[in-house]
Amino acid sequence: MNPHNEPRKHSTDINSAETPSASPAANSPDASGRPADSSPPSPSSRAFDSPAPAIPAQSTTSSSSSTPSSQPAGHSHSASAADAARTGTEPAEAQVTLRGPAELADALPYLMGFFPDDSIVMVALHGERGRFGGRVRLGIPTDATQWPDTADQLADCLISAGQERAARPAAIIVYLCQEPAAGASGKDVKDRLRPLAQRLRTACGALDVPVLEALCLSNGRFWSYCCPDFRCCPAEGTPMVMPGTSVMAAAAAYAGMQVRGSLKEMEARLTPRKGPRAADQEKALDKAAGALVPRMLRADGAVAVRRDTLDLAAAMIHRFRQDTPSGSNRARDACDDALITDAEAADLILGLQDRVTRDRAAEWMDGPVAAPALRLWRALTRRCAGGYIEHAVAPLTLAGWVCWSTEDGPSARVALSCALSIDPDYLFAQLLHRAINEGLDPEPLRRCLREQHRDAVAAPGGAEPAAESASPAEPASAAEEASQHARRSGPARSGPAGRPRGPRGGTGPGTRTTDGRGRRRARRDDDRSRR
């Protein structure tokens, strides 16, 4: 299992940027009922009579790691903006104290930025006051025989990541999130996942890090795997608080934190069409592919195709910018789908398979064009129907890049994870996913792409970049090289960062030499890269 290659079901997300840090009250009990500052506890019993972890009302919105607050739990802003200006000090960071399993369960979507369906989520706690730190998410394996290995690797991944940053977790909170199947109940889910919860607790304990709490969230209720007292944790479960009514929701609203719905809802926006509309789009892609071959055989055919693709993309972004839909995500996506014809989508999808064209398209990354560009990349992803599913990797990666560039890390992770689930060796998606998980700043890559744009405008003809002659056999494109540079020179967190964090052996699109299906795909990628 690789924490940076996140397939649809067996998917792992490491959120090591400590966006919400937490600190429980000094006398809050751990899983054994002992004070948090006592020796490592036994996970056999627990009590939550005292405050548990606290999350600050303000959180970092940049990609770099935040500095955890060391204020006492329950501390609120003691200095206004005027006071801060007068004294020359930063306002104190407000804290929200989470008291017991109910508030821990309610905090999960705010920790992740979305509700993680069908997922294992592990959250590291640091220090005596248990500040929230890194998080790791993995899709729950459908095969129960994989649970022991999954638990061991997840525990090692989260704990070793903290050690690399000189911040070994003091404890861990485990969440198991899954909705019941038809005819089943949340209690059935809780009972079925109990062996997985126990294995996760054992795996963490084997590494000398206790599990403070293990919760199962299903069908609007939660259960604790650590509390044996049916008076506070009844067998039928405890209802979740109403959305938007908790202290955590108020703190999130104050801090500008946004919950983007569920993971399934986010992935649905990036799922290709099905049914008759998918068949029509596939026919348009077949027709466009047939017309593309003779064009590529002409002199300077690749240059012409790149220019036409970028001109069409610019026209589509302008069209999307002029028509901003409203309503639910589903309604907005339907409006976006109606703004682009099957033929236009086919030409763009095929043209973006060229890495130079893709890198030029990545220049639409900020300012007023970022939002319409993101809508376009999502719309193109939904058009990669039938046998063209592999073509979705390029627009998915562009969507992830725009999300990261506009400080929407959760959406970026989902888009890049979808891309890597289709093609684990796609180098640009690999590099972006690692950079986000390592808390790097996207500005070095943005700066490189701005320079690329200036070079392209200054070049003869004012359209193509100096890198237009790049060979498909090159190991990395301009954007990929910039991403690698950002990982080397960006503001990474303290501690060594030499351990590989993503899929191994990736050499980028069009350069793989594996046999079988991978070799056939490499040949197709080679052909696409020459466009």
TrEMBL record:
It comes from the Bacteria. It holds the Pfam family DUF4192. Residues 1-95, 454-531 are annotated as: Disordered. Residues 16-37, 44-85, 458-481, 491-500 have a biased composition (Low complexity). Coiled coil: none annotated. Residues 1-12 have a biased composition (Basic and acidic residues). This is DUF4192 domain-containing protein.
